[in-house]
Amino acid sequence: MSARAARSSWRRFPHPDKAYLYAESRLKAHWPRLHCGDREPFPDAHRLETMLGGAHGEDHPLSGRTGGWKALSAEVQQAWRLYHEGEFEKAVRLAASLRSAGRCVASKAATVYANYLEQDPNRRLELFESAAQEAERAAAAMPDHANAHYLRAFALGRYSQGISVLVALSRGLGGKVKTSLDRALELDPGHADAHIASGAYHAEIIDKVGGLVGGLTYGANKDDGLAHYRKAMELNPHSAIARIEYANGLLLMFGTSRRAEAEQLYREAAGIEPADAMERLDAELAASMLR
Question: Is 237 part of any domain?
Answer without folding.
Answer: no
